[in-house]
Design brief:
Blueprint (H helix, E strand, L loop, with lengths): L15 H27 L4 H14 L1 H29 L10 H10 L1 H17 L6 H30 L2 H20 L11 H6 L4 H27 L4 H26 L4 H22 L3 H30 L4 H30 L1 H42 L1
Helix pairs in contact: 1-4, 1-6, 1-7, 1-9, 2-4, 2-9, 2-13, 3-5, 3-7, 3-13, 5-6, 5-13, 6-10, 6-12, 9-11, 9-12, 9-13, 9-14, 10-12, 11-12, 11-14, 12-13, 13-14
C-alpha cells in the first residue's frame, strides 16, 4: 500500500501537498484560458466566437465522457489522472515553432480532454487524504485551492502577457501539470471495494435531481466564463487589470464556497443543491444589473460562479453517497459527463446572446433559465415525495393493525 506523502494528522495535514499541487495546476490552467480568450478578443473575436471555442472544447471531451466512468472503474483514478497529465505536458510542444492565434487556439482546444481526466482524479486524491464524515469540508478545500489558483491565474497571466508575451504563461501551464504528476502517482486513494455493477446501482434509484441541477449550473457557469473576460476587455480594461478584477471576484467566490463546505457536512446534499441554485439565480440577475460598472459586475458574476460551485458540491456529494467513498473518481467522472453537456450548451448560447443583445441581456437570460429550471426541479421533487409518502402509508397502516 502506498503511504501518504505527509503523515495524516487530526488537522488534515495530509491534504497540504495535494492542495498545493491542485492550486498550481489551476493557476496555470486559468492563466492560460484567460490569456487566450483575452488575446483573441483583442484581435477582434466576439463573445460568440469565444462561446463556440468553449463548446468545441466540451464536445471534444464527448468520447472520453462516455467512456470515462467505465475506464475509471477498471483502471482506477490514479492511471486516468497520470495519462491526462502526461498529455498536458506534451501539448506545449506545439508552441515551439511560434505562438500564433491558430496555435494558441489548438493548444486551448486540445487541452480540454486531458484536463477533464485530471479533474476526475482530484476529488479521489482529496478524499483519500481526509477522514470519513468530512467529505464536504475536504471537497470545499479542494474547491478553494482550485478557486484560488483560478483567481490568481488570470491576473498573473495578464501581467506576464503584457510584459513578456504568452510564452511564460504556457510554461506556467506546463509547470502546474509537472507539479501535479508526482502527487497523482504517490498520494493515497480511498481503499477500493468490490464493484457491485451498474445494474445494482441503478436499482437503488438514479440521483437524477443532482444530475439535472449539475447540468443547469454547468451551463450557467460556462456562459459566465464566455462572457466575463470579453465584457471586461470591451469596457477598456487591460489584460492585467481585467485579471486583477477577476482575482478579486474569485476570492469572494472562494469564501462563499467554504461556507458551502461547512454546511455540506451538516446538511443533506439536496439542501446544498437548492441553496446553490438560489445563489446562482441571484448572481445572474445581479450581473445583468451591474454590466458597465466593472467592480460590481465582477463581484456579481463571481456570486453566480459561487452558486454554480455550491451546486456542484451538492451534486458530487449526492453521487458519492450513491456510489460510495471508494468510487469518488467514478462519481467525479459521471459528474464531468453531466458538466460536459451543460457547458456545451451554455457557452455558445450565452456568447451568441452577448454578441446580439449585450452582456446584460445574456446574464438576465441565464438567470431566467435557471429560475425556470429550478421551478421544474422543485415540482418534480414534490411529485416524487408524494409518491414516496403514498407508498409508505399502507405499510404504516398495516403496522398499526
Amino acid at each position: 500500500m502506498r503511504a501518504r506523502l505527509f503523515p495524516h494528522s487530526s488537522l488534515g495535514f495530509g491534504l497540504v501537498p495535494i492542495l498545493v499541487s491542485i492550486f498550481a495546476f489551476n493557476l496555470g490552467s486559468a492563466a492560460w484560458s484567460a490569456v487566450v480568450a483575452a488575446r483573441l478578443t483583442q484581435e477582434g473575436a466576439g463573445t460568440g466566437l469565444l462561446g463556440v471555442l468553449y463548446a468545441i472544447c466540451e464536445v471534444s471531451r464527448l468520447p472520453a465522457a462516455l467512456l470515462l466512468p467505465a475506464l475509471t472503474v477498471h483502471h482506477g483514478a490514479r492511471r486516468v489522472t497520470q495519462i491526462g497529465l502526461v498529455v498536458l505536458l506534451a501539448l506545449p510542444l506545439i508552441g515551439l515553432t511560434g505562438l500564433t492565434n491558430d496555435q494558441l487556439t489548438a493548444i486551448f482546444v486540445l487541452s480540454a480532454l486531458p484536463t477533464m481526466a485530471v479533474y476526475v482524479g482530484m476529488p479521489a486524491l482529496v478524499i483519500g487524504a481526509s477522514k470519513e464524515g468530512r467529505d464536504g469540508w475536504s471537497l470545499a478545500w479542494l474547491g478553494l485551492a482550485g478557486g484560488a489558483g483560478g483567481a490568481l491565474g488570470p491576473w498573473i497571466g495578464g501581467m506576464l502577457t503584457d510584459g513578456f508575451g504568452v510564452g511564460p504563461v504556457l510554461g506556467m501551464f506546463a509547470g502546474g501539470s509537472l507539479l501535479m504528476l508526482p502527487i497523482a502517482t504517490f498520494a493515497a486513494l480511498p481503499a477500493r471495494s468490490a464493484w457491485p455493477g451498474w445494474t445494482a446501482l441503478a436499482g437503488r434509484g438514479l440521483p437524477w435531481q443532482a444530475l439535472m441541477a449539475l447540468g443547469l449550473a454547468s451551463a450557467a457557469d460556462a456562459g459566465r466564463a464566455a462572457l466575463v473576460p470579453g465584457e471586461l476587455v470591451h469596457q477598456g480594461q487591460p489584460l492585467a487589470g481585467a485579471g486583477l478584477l477577476l482575482t478579486a471576484g474569485a476570492a469572494v467566490a472562494g469564501i462563499g464556497f467554504l461556507g458551502f463546505g461547512r454546511l455540506a457536512d451538516r446538511q443533506s446534499s439536496s439542501r446544498i443543491l437548492g441553496l446553490g441554485v438560489l445563489v446562482l439565480v441571484i448572481g445572474s440577475f445581479a450581473s445583468a444589473l451591474a454590466v458597465g460598472w466593472a467592480p460590481a459586475f465582477v463581484v456579481a458574476s463571481s456570486t453566480l460562479g459561487m452558486g454554480a460551485s455550491g451546486t456542484r458540491l451538492g451534486a458530487e456529494l449526492a453521487l458519492i453517497g450513491w456510489l460510495g467513498r471508494d468510487r469518488t473518481a467514478v462519481a467525479a467522472a459521471l459528474g464531468e459527463t453531466t458538466v460536459l453537456g451543460g457547458r456545451a450548451l451554455g457557452a455558445p448560447a450565452a456568447g451568441s446572446l452577448g454578441d446580439a443583445f449585450g452582456g446584460a441581456y445574456a446574464f438576465g437570460a441565464i438567470g431566467l433559465a435557471a429560475l425556470l429550471a429550478s421551478g421544474v426541479l422543485l415540482a418534480l421533487t414534490f411529485v416524487q415525495l408524494r409518491r414516496t409518502f403514498a407508498e409508505a402509508a399502507p405499510v404504516g397502516l398495516r403496522a398499526v393493525d
